Amino acid sequence: MSLIPSFFGGRRSNVFDPFSLDVWDPFQEIFSGPNAPSSARETSAIVSTRVDWKETPQAHVFNVELPGLKKEEVKVEIEDGRVLQISGERSREQEQKDDKWHRVERSTGKFMRRFRLPENAKMDDVRAAMENGVLTVTVPKVEEKKPEIKSIQISG
Known about the structure:
Blueprint: E1 4-5, E2 12-13, H1 38-48, E3 51-55, E4 59-65, E5 74-79, E6 83-90, E7 109-116, E8 127-131, E9 134-140
Domain SHSP: 42-156
InterPro entries: A-crystallin/Hsp20_dom, HSP20-like_chaperone, Small_HSP
Pfam family, one: HSP20
């Protein structure tokens, strides 16, 4: 898997990750913010849901930043046998008649992230937990069978 370093903070990007089904939107910053059309703000919620995916010797671990959401507002599903789908919706805060907004930066609307899992993923044992606004999805890996080695006596 080829990962390229990002120009921002040394974080890694998954631009060339064959397992990621993400869509990168280069115009996200242009079309987001309080003056953007509501459809553009809702689309930015899809792109701006941050996910870290790491592989350990035992599992694939996904950490998803979902500040302010309850576990009931998030769905974790396996689709087509090998696609992990994380989705939900951030509701817009109710506006009061006398409120005067100075800045709106938090995105609202539906979000969905999808990841094609590799063959070594144990799909029947997927676990998810939410704590302090971070969803952690753990996909255990199938144990690799070590080749059986049988020593042969050499005669002579």
